[in-house]
Predict the structure of ABC transporter permease subunit.
Amino acid sequence: MFAYFGAHSTQIWKLTLEHIEMTAIAVCIAILIGVPLGILISYVRKLDKPVIGAANVVQAIPSMALLGLGIPLLGIGVLPAVVMVIIYSLLPIVKNTYTGISGIDPQMVEAANGIGLTPRQVLTRVKIPMALPVIMAGVRISAVTAVGLMTMAAFIGAGGLGYLVFAGIRTTNNYQILAGANPACILALLVDFLMGLVEKLVTPISLQKTGGISRAQMKRKRKREKFTLAAALILICAIIAGGAINNMVSGRDKEITIGGKDFTEQFILVNLCSDYIEAHTDINCFRKENLGGSQVCYEALKKGEIDMYVDYTGTLYGSVLKHDGTDDMEGVYNTCVREMKKQNITLTRQCGFNNTYTLAVSHRIAKKYNLETIENLVDKSSQMHLGCSLEFQNRHDCMDALEKAYPGLKFRKISAMDGSPRFVALANKEVDVIDAFATDGMLLKYNLKVLKDEDHVFPPYYAVPCFSSDTLKKYPELREVVDKLAPKLTDEVMMKLNYQVDVKGREPKDVAREYLKREKLI
């Protein structure tokens, strides 16, 4: 584990800084919204139940669902991730502010009014100072929770430590998971410690348990705590400022954003295309990996949030354009080109590999049930447990296509799960059949039997670069460059590259660059 941390220290540090930056921004904005809102409902009592009730309802919505709902409105990247964390952070802040101010002794407020303080002075000089310990307890809870929630940002290409966690899960790389999880845990502990200091500092000395410490010693201790907080605040501001400056100066006049989906092959393709384009043009490529499924990338491309990503003809044909499956490779490609053009998306030359869907079993199961083809599953399916990806179960060209082709195919149980855990489930004999991609390196890692699709249930899934038509008009040289790379990426090449990442545990960017250099493509 420590060897992995040492080898990837630069990446871990970069993602940690991104995580700190996004979390700090989200918590600060949540405080700016939550505290005034809590004060408001403590004065306007008709609003307290609706506001706190609404905050409770939002808190009950799964974070992934809230993030998914935000994508059509806010797109991908940092903005929706920060907004999601802000929304989740509001309840403890609003509720504790309301409780702290409402719980102040009425006689104290009456005394403040009696000495001539205005309502505003009562609030700023009496109520808020007395309620600060309770308010800070809510802020403390929100800040610690925000560190964990921000790992979700990786699902929409916002970066942060969640990238390592989810990339590790998909490649069953425990060291990579720990490389993301351990810094996140340390950050949560640091945040809790710093917020605890703030909580102490806002509590009057007269209300604190001194534990036998003299008043002078207490003052010296508070001075040290203030210095620690000031140093932490300066560091956080420097991280945020550094990120902002880096964003302003890192871009060149000629720059495009290349997106990718959330599995190994896509990580590799993003880096292959980026390195190749940068080597053969003067265009800089900003890489936005791990954007979820096809619909996320497709919507991001339509909105101009990315300029290019690599999809698969079968996915576009069946899932995006809603056509029934066919084994006509050229027909599928030409249909996709024609219909995507209407949406201002240009498909260039398709690649030389067909990463179609397939079903796979262990050799033990294949021998037990005498399985060679998908059709062989029909009579045995009632005894078998299918473990498939979420996308496979819900896509028009996957599970629906299977059931339509084989009406008698009825699995005993279907468990949908995310990414590579289905391979682990098959290895642990928790499921009997899984879906997989034809070029998946995990097939080699787990030594699985791939069932032949003799009836061509799944359409051809040739990888094809998808560009915003506006981007190609601006940089017409991109088409020629990408068209030269596409035919060199064959089934064999992609299987080996995926194997290097999935089995050997190497970084996709290193595998991509090494291949391009070995083949003298860059």
User: Anything to note?
Assistant: Residues 250 and 364 are 53 Å apart (CA to CA). The mean pLDDT is 86.
